[in-house]
Amino acid sequence: MNQRLRRAARRRAAAIVVIATMVATGLVATAPPVQAADEDLILNGGFESGLGNWFVNNGNATDSAVLSPTPDAYSGASAVLVTARATTGSGPMQDLSGKVRAGQTYALTARVKYENANGPATKQFFATMHYGGGTYTNLVSVVATKGQWARFNGTFTIPAEQNASTARLFFETPWTSTPSADPDLHLMDFKLDDVSVLGAPPPAPPSKTIEVVGKLPGEHNPLIGHKFGADGFGFVHGGRVYMYLTNDTQGYAPDPVTGISPGINYGNINQITVISSADLVNWTDHGEIQVAGPNGVAPFTSNSWAPGMARKVVGGTEKFFLYYANGGGSSNVITGASPLGPWTSERTTTLINGSTPGAEDVVWKFDPAPLVDDDGEAYLYFGGGPASTSMPPAERFNNPKNLRAIDLGDDMVSTEGSAVVVDAPVSFEAGHVFKRDGRYYFSYSSHFGGNDFGGPQTPLPGYPGGGQIGYMISDDPMTWPKETYAGVLFPNQSQFFGAGTGGNNHQSVFEFEGRYYFTYHAPTLNKRINGNTTQGYRSPHIQELAFNPDGTIQQVVGTYAGAEQVKNFNPYRVFEAETLGWSKGIATARIDGPSAEFGASVPNLVLRDVDNGDWTALSSVDFGTDGARSVSAKVRALGAGGHVRVRLDSLTGPLVGTIPAGTPIGEWAEVSGELDAVSGVHDVYFVYEGPAGADLVEIDSWTFEPATGQAELPVTGSAQSRCVAGKAYVAVQARNDHDEPVDITLQTPYGTRSFADVAPGANAYQSFATRSASIAAGSATARATGTIDGTAVTTIRTTDYPGVVCAG
Questions:
Q1: How many Cβ atoms are within 10 Å of 721's Cβ, its own excluded?
Q2: CB 580 within 8 A of CB 285
Q3: pTM value?
Q4: Strand blocks (E) in 592-627
Q5: By percentage, how much of the chain surpasses pLDDT 70?
Q6: N- to C-terminal Cα distance for the chain?
């Protein structure tokens, strides 16, 4: 194995010679026995699922090819055909990031064939790893004979000092700087099949699940308690507030023993977290957008911090534009079809960078914040960092002139003209603009002094102190002299949340339901996990803004109470289970398939890592006067014996229903439970119970069914537990006393069975095998569907069964 930089032609040529020598001497082809614990790290290595998990190597801008399934396979029904290769490195690639580790040895096998009539009689092929940037390593080589399948068969060891956080395997022919000069020799089509990389899988990463109650019941800050998020940008669309956040959770890795994570590493963050709410208290987790990095929407960027969002109709099409900081040196934008995507990149280079006119003296060309004015004109605010050393020390401190405003093009993904200075006093970063009553408000974060800002200096009277949010008011979105400074909008958050919560901040302002709200972050969740010694993991907060008669803003006070809930929660619909007012001990994860609430084009998340004693809750759920008669959930049981207790107003409040959550293990199914006399407005707690020490269930969605005063089907249910041959069984029966046939579904923690057209007076019966010698007491549900006077009616009956211990 040999490592080299892609850009160094001579070094790469030397690497090919070294690899060829290793192959000739047998150094690569000799494979030590693979340990029993090893597993195949390649997905769809036989291409039996088409091109799934494979793509064309895109490490260099010039790499391109076409991948097509072909029935000419070495084994099975399919292989991949590689055609239209632009470079020698243009071949099929699979991302192994997170699967392989430095210092570990792996066994690689694959089959390759080429048949080009004008090609050479033999040809060398490489399996190569791209570790990001310009670092490539040839792993295993084979010399193929034209028209015959050749076998890669060798091992490779990733050097202990190699950073393998990015590791992408691809197949290629030997490098040459001018492959198009002899395409028959260098750019021939080829077929690939049966790719395998055997090795020990990486250890499971430390759990990121937050087991403490980070957002206390009754409080509305931080907005969520199951993950972190910073630099929140509030955006209103379609009756919802969307918050776009720097994904601080990405690097969170608490020690399994101490519970303390290493300090946050901003350099590794390349995702944006999205949450949304219709009431400012119950927030839906939409997961993360992979914005930057090799597999990002914009792979030419490395980081995604401090997002900003805007909407505009461009060329007759409604588009959504997500701006973000690519580290400190540039900013960029991606385009979405909705606030939740899907996302594409209309650019191949960053939007704001060293070539942006008027920004030459700005050190940090980041924190982009867009504004689309009432007339459709759009602007972008950005910048920050040390002041220019050409200014006197006092001016560097009080008026650093490190923030900028620039016109955006009509397409929202380009700029026009030259950036202008925003002369914000004591400015550091985080510029943001909103409009109210015809006036523009620019807010920003202030610096902490030091040599970057002129050394020891005295701020002018009224100017912000370190780490505060100042603001300015102007009649023109592009005119911000220092005279427009209006005061301190928000003191440092440590003034309100105490030790461990200091540092700089990042804010936005949005209007919702006729009121204005201020967003900011603070490491309050981090503090509730680890006490006053925090590691920099921040959480989003919201406070309502109040204005004086002259248009100035009353200084914001940070509180755990947060903003008031603007309306009650409607339960009579299908909604995402990851909609959370409060929670304990759960996590969320993305799964395949459409979102039940938001549609097929956006990510679908579920609750996961649900253990005995964990819970989630919703704030101010309005069941109305008639109330609800049942609740249903879409769940996937991970083990038998789980159920969900539904309680009102607190964890120990009235128990109003139980949902059996032990559907056939590993399968998604709808489960339901009756509710007892639930009406009016209540907080609703879903309390998860079941065997200790194991994940119980994944949950996709909830829905409540209203009572509505409708007639009920005359169906009765019963359940009992019994022993057969030393194993426990749960027998469930439902009798149809209606004068018409009904459909009946019987549900228990051990399975579900449906019966169609159960005749009047007949029973639906099933004995469910538990495959256990003992079971705890539980409940079973009978769900009957039929008609009464021509109207469709569903009636749910829940009945308990006792626990039982069967002799062996």
A1: 22
A2: yes
A3: 0.73
A4: 604-610, 615-622
A5: 95
A6: 59
Q: Which of 616, 510, 600, 588 is nearest to 288 (CA)?
A: 588
Is there a contact between 443 and 403 (Cβ–Cβ < 8 Å)? no
State the Cα–Cα distance between residues 519 and 490, nearest whole angstrom. 10
Both tokens assigned to 400 = 């650093």
Residues 422, 426, 428, 433, Cα dihedral to 10°: -40
Average pLDDT, the chain: 92
Are 189 and 116 in contact, with CB atoms under 8 Å apart? yes
What are the φ/ψ torsions at residue 473 (nearest 5 degrees)? -130, 130
Q: Is 452 helix (H, G, I), strand (E, B) or coil?
A: helix
Identify the bridge partners of residue 589 per DSSP, sorted by sequence position: 606
Coil, strand or helix at 261 = coil
For residue 165, the number of C-alpha atoms closer than 13 Å in the C-beta half-sphere is 9
Question: 447 has which bridge partners?
Answer: none
Contact 398, 428 (CB under 8 A): no
Task: List domains and CATH numbers for the chain.
Answer: 1-32+710-808 (2.60.40), 39-199 (2.60.120.260), 230-545 (2.115.10.20), 575-706 (2.60.120.260)
Task: Select which of 63, 172, 231, 683 is catalytic.
Answer: 231
Sheet holding 135-145, edge to edge: 2-5, 135-145, 122-130, 168-172, 92-95, 55-56
Q: Which residues, 6 or more positions from 21, have their beta carbon under 8 angstroms from its beta carbon?
A: none
- 597 is known as an active-site residue: no
Our answer to whether residue 676 is catalytic in this structure is no
| For residues 393-407, average pLDDT | 97
Q: How many CB atoms lie within 10 A of CB 39?
A: 12
**pLDDT score for 10:** 26
pLDDT attached to residue 14 = 32
What average pLDDT does this structure show over 351-373?
A: 97
Strands 369-372 and 378-383 come out as antiparallel
Q: What is the DSSP letter of 547?
A: B
| CA count, 13 A, side-chain hemisphere, 193 | 19
Q: How confident is the model at residue 562 (pLDDT cuts 50, 70, 90)?
A: very high
Does the pLDDT of residue 715 top 70, yes or no?
Answer: yes
Side-chain-side CA neighbours of 86 within 13 Å: the count stands at 11
HSE at residue 2, side-chain half, CA atoms within 13 A, is 19
Residue-level pLDDT at 808: 57
Which of 429, 452, 609, 689 does the annotation list as catalytic? 429
Amino acid at position 630, single letter = S
Q: What Rg do the C-alpha atoms of the chain give, in angstroms?
A: 31
Sign of the CA dihedral 105, 110, 113, 114? Answer: negative
Phi-psi region of 552 (alpha: psi -120 to 50; beta: other; left: phi over 0): beta
The pLDDT score that the predictor gives to residue 34 is: 40
pLDDT for residue 28 is more than 70: no
Q: How far is CA 749 from CA 638, 640, 726, 770, 783, in A?
A: 11, 6, 19, 9, 15
